[in-house]
Amino acid sequence: MRYGRTVRGTFVSRPNRFVAEVDISGTVETVHVKNTGRCKEILVPGAEVILEDSENARRRTRYDLIAAYKNGILINIDSQAPNQAFSEFIHRSGLFGDVPRVFPEHVHGDSRFDFYIESDDRRIFIEVKGVTKEMDGVCMFPDAPTERGLKHIKGLERCLSEGYEAYIALVVQMKGMREFVPDYAIHEEFGKEMETAESLGVGVLVYDCIVTEDSMTVDSPIPHRYAHS
Fold first, then answer.
1. In sequence order, what are the residues at sequence separation of 6 or more whose Cβ sits closer than 8 angstroms to the Cβ of residue 123?
2. 81-221 sits in which CATH class?
3. CATH number of the domain at 6-76, out of 2.60.40.10, 2.40.50.580, 3.30.70.1230, 3.40.640.10?
4. Who contacts 127 (Cβ-Cβ below 8 Å, separation ≥6)?
5. Where does 79-134 have alpha helices with state H?
6. Tell me: the pLDDT tens digits for 36-66?
7. Which of 25, 89, 191, 196 is positioned for an S-S bond with 184, CB 3.0–4.6 A?
8. Are 53 and 4 in contact (CB under 8 A)?
9. Confidence of residue 194 (pLDDT cuts 50, 70, 90)
């Protein structure tokens, strides 16, 4: 997936989940943050950030904050990017069949999953989670308690019991990570439910991404482990 015109800036502050103050060429602008998560380890004063310019001066916030550098690593923090990039990956990877029929935002039971796929005789549900938190080469999810994420995992387990294939796809929005581990300290129940789901047969896909200042592409699988392993 690609963005339009991008510019660099310097992060100043984040008054609330939706906006940030960013210094762009000496002028402090209020910009839209395309991620309502905490991102507190990434969005720190002085961090170099990347913004997409809507080039619409009449918009309340002309710029969208889409990425930031942390210790030399460019991390995409656009919460919409994982689904867009993974949709492209579905079609080019062949992982789910050569010509899959893809239905985004598909409701099944009491859950809305990111993708439902039909390919040959396969019927597949996939829930995508974007991963932006890292520490010393280990990437983690979530960065805040996620009852919604927990519900999705349990929903995937139900899909599996009904005869569907089911996957949770963790899209790591950066390069250079050696492994993924659920963040038990943030939401222990989520991590434990991931373990249960995989033991039941829910597939766990973890892929890193090639991230540039104006693009993000799902790239290579990386290993995952749980707290006891």
1. 116, 117, 163, 164, 165
2. alpha beta
3. 2.40.50.580
4. 113, 114, 152, 153, 155, 156, 167, 168, 169
5. 81-93
6. 888 889 999 999 999 999 988 788 899 999 9
7. 191
8. yes
9. very high
